[in-house]
Amino acid sequence: MILVLRALGVGDLATAVPALRALRAAHPDRRLALAAPAWLAPLVDLVGGVDLLVDTPDPGRIRWPHPPPRLAVNLHGRGPQSHRALAATGPGRLLAFASPDAGFTDGPDWDADEHEVDRWCRLLAWYGIPADRTDLALGRPAATGVPTGATVLHPGSKIAAKRWPADRFAVLARRLAARGHRVVLTGSADERELAGGVAAAAGLPSEAVWAGRTGLAELAALVAYARVVVSGDTGVAHLATGYGRPSVVLFGPVSPARWGPPPDRPRHRVIWAGNRDWPSWDGVGSHPSLTALGVDEVSAAVDEVERVVRDSGAVAA
Prior knowledge:
By secondary structure, the chain is α/β, with parallel strands linked by helices. Helices cover 34% and strands 13% of the residues. Strand 2, helix 3 and strand 3 form a beta-alpha-beta unit. Helix 6 (166-178) packs across helix 7, helix 6 packs across helix 12 (295-312) and helix 8 packs across helix 9 (235-243). The mean pLDDT is 93.
């Protein structure tokens, strides 16, 4: 058995796909168990290659009722807590970044500025396991019960600083609807009020609000068959990358160099103003690197990625 720890969210799982597939390819005859939150199960199924999902809401504690794994792999962090959690399962060998605090010095050094996809590919390469950082595609779910060809706007984020202002999302939604886009607004149950406010300000019907109405499988389907996706630096942006759907991702304050879509894919457009000098910020609401982004710039980016798709001759969802 191979035990892999990646107990985080949607974007974190999506960026670990190349590493997970590399482990699967390197050990085709062994069962692969993934320690991650149970609510990620629909996305784990779309990644493929995982034989067992071990519900792990707390990365510092893995409930492992099975015999010690032959191999444990830390795709969660640098340690020491995650290293110790994996070591507690009694693995024959641990693959991880060096963590002197955990008494583990075998792996490579951590690079805080490294892109999240490259980080885990480099970790495996250190141990002689090649990984293809472009292998990000996700299995395409059925579109049962969700609209296809919709323009998905995702105004929320667990981190308020990473949200583009809601009133600008509303102006963008109104513009796109006037140009013939079927706009839908996605988000978690906690973001339903936010999405509903954007829809109301944009003059959209309540049926346009899908926030809180979808599970992860339905959200993946909305994105997989979307006309275009506009979001901040969230899991939805990584779903758009995994499905190759045209997307505009608004970054800030974290750099796209660490979490952005592949720069060689022009159907994914990153807008980033975080390399400018900003006045002091009180830490409330959207970060200045996001409030600096205007609706005209985002609207033009939507047109740009759609033009890329048309020029490439790709078939729309």
